[in-house]
């Protein structure tokens, strides 16, 4: 599972892993602003920022190839918009779109690969993200694996009864089979959600989560944030001035 | 001494009109471990959900002398811990320690004290080594133990376990029976597993069509209801 790999990566012990999530979130925001608002010399800026992220991946002791491949998950989505730009006679915009999307995904991946999800959500909550949205994210992350497993069980059960996509005659039959499976999965997820809610109430859930441990923003986190933020801003200024 | 649980003429209908409970009378005393036996759909789980106010029907339910109603729900839930059939639904927090500390934190304990209580409960079920793990990294038996720890951390007077042996292999069932026997709380076990009930329970009640049909020892109930699997031998 994709999120199990990220979970394992996030529980490392590198210098980057030890930083307070709020410092890393703030550094990510600076990175995204520096990249997202740039319109000139994108080739140079993109290359340097790529090297910065690569250095981050090495510092976090993450597998470089696997991390680069995972960041590529955004490419199919952005490629579509890039092709449209290209066909509209603006290939530069298309290339910039792909580059910015890939580097942004790399930066986000570096954050989630160096911060366990509970801490990341706590950090986001303390930086003002809506609590309800974070709660939904937490449950989605926890139960995505379970729901996926249920879908795989259903698929195996269908295969055990000799069901194949080719075996269903016509698109209508295939659509009905897929819709039926989806409906069952939805009903099961709904049932599970009800049971989880009951389990939460049974242990006195007051409507919000109480944290078990407080986050600590240390002097090292301040230095990390200052250094990373200033470095990113200076990179942009230097490249734009040099041009 | 007043009973831990006292139920009088409990009746309940689901929204679709299904009458799940049709007048249940029940009593649980201190140090008792009672098996709730009966057919699927006979009302055992619905009954258990009434004990800590997750469902509310007609009739009266008292836990440790406190009437179970919306006003007293929080107090009652401190007294009675419910372990659900599927531990996956009960372990919803990102790590084992956070999950076990969930109840104590909700009951107003400080984070340090809640963590300490959670570690003690994990120690009690032999899972202290898994405190930092994510629940989906655990086996079915380990998940069940952690789910029980989540309830023990709230220091309840009564434990209610719904089908505790589901998904467990025989060694894990044996370990669970030993664990339950070592716990001082009164217990209610909803189960179809007669050997397990025999190993852990002091008496049994038999549910049928939303009512308690019989009470007695496990052997009496299984004999009267023919409620045990025995392979037929060739004549």
Word description of this protein:
The complex is a heterodimer of chains A (about 240) and B (about 240). With about 240 residues, chain A is mainly alpha-helical. Chain A folds into two domains: about 1-125 and about 215-240, no CATH class; about 130-200, no CATH class. Chain A is built from ten helices and no strands. In chain A, α2 packs parallel to α10 and α4 (about 65-70) packs across α6 (about 90-115). The longest helix of chain A is centred in the C-terminal third of the chain and has 33 residues, at about 170-200. By secondary structure, chain B is α/β, with parallel strands linked by helices. Chain B has a domain at about 5-90 and about 160-225: P-loop containing nucleotide triphosphate hydrolases (Rossmann fold, 3-Layer(aba) Sandwich), CATH 3.40.50. Chain B is about 35% helix and about 25% strand. Chain B contains nine helices and ten strands. Chain B has helices at about 45-50, 75-80, 85-90, 95-105, 110-125, 140-150, 170-180, 195-200, 220-225, and strands at about 5-15, 20-30, 35-40, 60-65, 65, 80-85, 160, 185-190, 205-210, 210-215. In chain B, strands 6-7-8-3-9-10 form a six-stranded mixed beta sheet, sandwiched between helices. In chain B, strands 2-1-4-5 form a four-stranded antiparallel beta sheet, covered by helices on one side. The longest helix of chain B has 14 residues, at about 110-125. The interface of A and B includes residues 138, 192 and 210 of A.
């Amino acid at each position: 599972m994709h999120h199990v790999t990220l979970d394992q990566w996030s529980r490392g012990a590198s210098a980057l892993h030890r930083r307070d999530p709020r410092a890393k979130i703030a550094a990510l925001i600076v990175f995204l602003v520096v990249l997202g608002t740039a319109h000139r010399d994108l080739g140079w800026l993109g290359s340097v920022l790529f090297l910065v992220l690569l250095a981050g991946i090495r510092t976090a002791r993450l597998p470089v190839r696997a991390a680069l491949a995972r960041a590529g998950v955004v490419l199919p989505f952005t490629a579509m918009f890039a092709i449209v730009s290209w066909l509209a006679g603006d290939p530069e915009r298309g290339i910039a779109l792909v580059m910015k999307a890939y580097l942004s995904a790399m930066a986000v991946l570096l954050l989630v690969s160096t911060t366990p999800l509970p801490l990341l959500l706590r950090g986001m909550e303390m930086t003002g993200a809506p609590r309800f949205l974070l709660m939904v994210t937490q449950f989605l992350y926890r139960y995505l694996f379970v729901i996926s497993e249920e879908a795989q069980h259903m698929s195996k059960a269908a295969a055990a009864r000799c069901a194949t996509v080719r075996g269903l005659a016509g698109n209508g039959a295939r659509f009905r089979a897929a819709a039926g499976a989806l409906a069952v999965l939805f009903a099961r997820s709904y049932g599970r959600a009800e049971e989880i809610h009951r389990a939460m109430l049974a242990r006195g859930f007051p409507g919000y989560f109480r944290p078990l441990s407080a986050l600590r923003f240390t002097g090292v986190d301040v230095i990390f944030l200052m250094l990373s933020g200033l470095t990113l801003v200076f990179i942009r200024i230097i490249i734009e001035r040099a041009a | 001494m007043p009973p831990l649980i006292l139920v009088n003429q409990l009746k309940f209908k689901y929204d679709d009109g299904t009458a799940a409970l049709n007048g249940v009378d029940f009593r649980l005393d201190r140090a008792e471990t009672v098996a709730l036996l009966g057919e699927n759909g006979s009302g055992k789980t619905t009954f258990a959900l009434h004990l800590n106010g997750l469902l509310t029907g007609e009739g009266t339910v008292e836990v440790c002398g406190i009437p179970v109603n919306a006003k007293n729900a929080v107090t009652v839930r401190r007294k009675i811990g419910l372990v659900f059939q599927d531990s996956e639904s009960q372990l919803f927090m990102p790590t084992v320690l956070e999950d076990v500390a969930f109840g104590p934190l909700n009951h107003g304990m400080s984070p340090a004290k809640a963590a300490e209580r959670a570690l003690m409960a994990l120690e009690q079920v032999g899972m202290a080594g898994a405190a930092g793990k994510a629940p989906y990294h655990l086996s079915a038996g380990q998940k069940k133990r952690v789910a029980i720890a989540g309830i023990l951390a709230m220091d309840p007077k009564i434990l209610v376990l719904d089908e505790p042996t589901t998904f467990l292999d025989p060694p894990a069932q044996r370990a669970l029976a030993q664990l339950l026997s070592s716990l001082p709380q009164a217990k209610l076990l909803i189960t179809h597993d007669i050997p397990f009930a025999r190993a852990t329970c002091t008496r049994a009640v038999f549910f049928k069509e939303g009512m308690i049909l019989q009470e007695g020892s496990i052997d009496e109930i299984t004999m009267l209801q023919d409620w045990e699997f025995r392979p037929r031998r060739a004549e």
